[in-house]
Fold:
Amino acid sequence: MGISGLDFGLIGAYLLGTVLFGVWVGRGQRSAGDYMLGSRDLPAWAVLLSIVATETSTVTFLSAPGAAYEGNLTFLQLPLGYILGRVAVVLVLMPGYFRGQYFTAYQVLQERFGGTTKQVASLLFLVTRSLADGLRLTLTAIVLHRLTGWGMVPSILAMGAVTVVYTYFGGMKAVVWTDVSQFFVYLAGAVAAFAVLLGKLPGGWQELVDSAGEAGKLRMFEFAFEADRAYGFWAGLVGGAFLSFASHGADQLMVQRYLCARSQRGAAWALLLSGPVVFVQFTLFLFLGLGLYAFYRGQPALPGDQVFARFIVDHLRQPPGLLGLVVGAVFAAALSTLSSSLNSSATTAVKDLYLPWFRPDASEREQLVLTKTLTALFGGVQMLVAIAGIYQERSILDRVLEIAGFTTGPILGLFLLGRCTTHVRQPAALAGLLVAIATLCTVRFVLPEWTGWRLAWPWYPALGAFTTVAAGLAAATLRPRHP
Structure:
């Protein structure tokens, strides 16, 4: 592909450095608590950057520019909702996580409803993470595939292996501190790519604005209410708020970071400040997409998921080292999310499933060994999902966000039932969860086939949460109470 030795050296040094740093940070870990939660002693600023880096996966880095390249700026309505959702997490759900020495979000559900509710929620989380993050790995492999000429399968296995190794040895402490470094790496890569892109446009910034304006791509708000529009104002504000409320308040991937913080106050500030940071990031990535539209205007259209990857590989070869920086940024965005997913999945599987079902009296050493083993196992599962994702026809960005909304909404409903009611018990809560999942399945798979009508995915979390709460309350009312 004509890549310079310096670029290859930078990419290799970054990946090797990430692995070695993970091994170094993980030295001296003696207990499962150290491995899973970083000894609960991480500063708020590190937790903040870890939240942002975890949320900024390869999907954000590669597919978000594609959203503006194919469409406009209406995607920014979603992160507006994300900010509101974070406020709701801090006010409603976060206090419950600091009332005990919890390892997972779902242990709170056990305290309120019982072990079965916790285990059902944990299983849904594990399925969601494996599917969504496997697809994220697919996008990462696209860059490696174009860069090296390797097949997609070898590219997926290579990226997956790097993630598994440093997460296996370093645990949560390595995940958070590498997230911090990866935040600056991918941000520097995005800014550098944007600067080069503007330099390749004859009219620079003005040409970007003019071409985007002529094509109607500068529109940010779409106030007309259409239930099947994913990037409308109300879908973004309400649907995005519930998506963030669910993903950041009822999902182990994020809750595990709060539990690593030194205090509830530190965790709250980290989460609240992450909202504006994510909004600024999305703005940068979407303007990258507008620049790509101006650059490729008049040429055959490229798939949105691949247009930025194509530009990186084809047009960032000079000066030497630039390509290495931007490709390293892509890998940084990927590793931050995938490593977090592996650690949180292994933690959930051990604490919520293995210990209650098989070994309640397992020693700290046994838990540590098992958590590391499951980290590698979940890495293998995500690689298999990534290979299957090669054959996806829809935008991977939409698919990943749809999966997140489909499962986290009903789980959020369980947390709201537990937090806002006192009379709803486990059978009613589980009935509400089942009704919500059945409702979402009907809306997603049955109605489009029968009627042609489709509900946009940002509404899935709100629908799932409200259905769980309503059905749970109804089931609690119908069930006779005993003294």
User: Anything to note?
Assistant: The chain has a mean pLDDT of 86. DSSP finds 18 helices and no strands in the chain. The chain has one domain: 5-391.
